[in-house]
Amino acid sequence: MTVIGLISGTSYDAVDAAAARMWLAGDTLFLVPLGVHSVPIPAPLRARIAAVLPPQRTTVDEICRLDATIGQLFGAVAADANTALTGGAAELVSSHGQTVYHWVDGRTALGTLQLGEPAWIAEASGLPVVSGLRSRDITRGGQGAPLASLLDALLVLGDDRAAGSLNLGGIANITAWSDLGEIVAYDIGPASALMDRAVADATDGRERMDIDGVRAARGRVDADLLTVLLAEPYYRLPPPKSTGKELFHAGYLRATLGERDVPLDDLLATVTELTAVLVARSCREHGVQRLFVAGGGVRNPALMGRIRALAAPAHVSEFDDLGMSAQGKEAYVMAVIGFLTVHGLPATIPSATGAATSSILGSVTPGAGPLRLPARARSFPSRITIAAA
Prior knowledge:
By secondary structure, the protein is α/β, with parallel strands linked by helices. It has helices at 43-52, 60-86, 118-125, 135-139, 149-157, 192-202, 214-218, 223-230, 250-257, 264-285, 301-311, 329-342, 350-353; strands spanning 2-8, 14-25, 28-40, 92-105, 108-115, 129-131, 163-168, 171-177, 183-190, 290-294, 315-318, 363-365, 383-386.
């Protein structure tokens, strides 16, 4: 089956589509990566998304309008990806949508909201769409996150107790083995969320990010500010746990700075150091000696350099070394989830999300024709193998 996975992450800068051909053989899920198609989110839509994120107030009519507009954009991306990556051979779309709120009270996730109405995607692509991927896990006591933990477990960790998988998006999350021999996965804390916010605030929105980590590289870490940032109570919560811009929002950094006058380059060096310190802590806690990194953060040499330095002697490499694009990893995760869902297989690991049991994720919206699901798979795969096209 050929599946297109769609996602816009916590940085809401682009919609990423990844296409994969997959099949089950025994206990192995074979995956052929067919490529990644990424479309920047137009600036006016980015501004509208930013305007509804916490702690901003919004209205029901704006949420409705955004749900439709994002769905239309995702639909166009899916249709274009089907043409560009598969030659029109895709059979399914699996869409994460755009997270605008993740409702967490302490360590308990109570709800989650992703926008991007799947009917628009089905209409534009003509394909059935799996969507609403996080909520079922939450109904069973889980965090609904990180969804990447399944792919990490099957592709990266396997039986290797010294391996770990890190994603650097707006939020950093890790998958690793616990000292009890269980797979754990959780949001470590902010990655680009605070970096991007610092740049946008200091430039009145003229710049959106620290491109290539240039500012952070020439700045100096403010040790006092770093100490204050590291005192955030979230970091002391044991996993499973999840977070987002509900905590690390536009006002978080301003409130933490208070009356401090920290030059932008030094501020970026400090929040970059924060992420690296948190990643290194998690690596030490879980005995990670081989860390595979994906997400937009791999394009930031300053961040990757500090992670390598602080996580040493752990060896840090990019996800591409495994045969899967570091930039497209999360979209490939969505494709895998969609494949498992239509084959009647769960896509969560209870020890990773904190749920009582694993869950078959999402709902299915029919495409242009009658909905015909494949026969239910006989067994759950124990590994993912990247295969050649």
